[in-house]
Amino acid sequence: MSQACAAPIPAERLLEYLLGELEANDEDRLEAHLFSCAACAAEGEKLAGLATAIGRVVPPVLSASRFEALEGAGLVSQVKAMAPGDVARVVYPSSGKVLVLRMGGADLGEARRVDVELRTPGGEPIARLDDVPFDASRGEILVACQHHFSETFPRDLVFAMELVSGDDRRPVAEYTVFHRLDVPKTSP
Q: Are strands 156-165 and 168-180 parallel, antiparallel or unpaired?
């Protein structure tokens, strides 16, 4: 049975470490502690699994409540507003965080539901997201860009929003996003 730690590392600090947000000197000290303390190492392993699981369960289009929960947990790295026709150049956030694109300005007043088609800038269909959460009064959807999406989708995407009302389906807005990978910080 392992002994309790005399100076346990706070969970928030462990999470900063797991997300690569510590300065090199702080990271070195924390790693030295983890190598010598079985209790903190075990807690770090639990949080690592949780951080990975959270990153994998965030859907590509968020409800307002899911966005607020992620933001409240400190998992939103940036929020960028886009209008129909906009082209955005963004950097995938570090692993464990999300970049939220507020794709707004669409006329969704008559929408029963909203569908989104993902395409290449050349028009090739990639995926379809049916019945996504939307805010009719703001005419927007909230798209979560996550680091692990770079392994699944092309980096350059067009989000084509479609309004569905009764038997009617019509395109209402397109947003183009050019994603780049975050370059890890290196210490001298």
A: antiparallel
For every one of its 188 residues, what pLDDT tens digit does the chain have, with 9 covering 90 and above?
A: 456 888 898 887 887 787 666 788 988 999 999 999 999 988 888 877 766 665 556 788 999 988 998 888 888 989 999 999 999 999 887 667 889 999 999 999 999 999 999 999 999 999 999 999 999 999 999 999 887 677 778 889 999 999 999 889 999 999 999 988 765 555 55
Taking the C-alpha atoms of residue 61 and residue 18, their distance in angstroms, rounded to an integer, is 25
Q: Cα separation of 44 and 59, whole Å?
A: 25
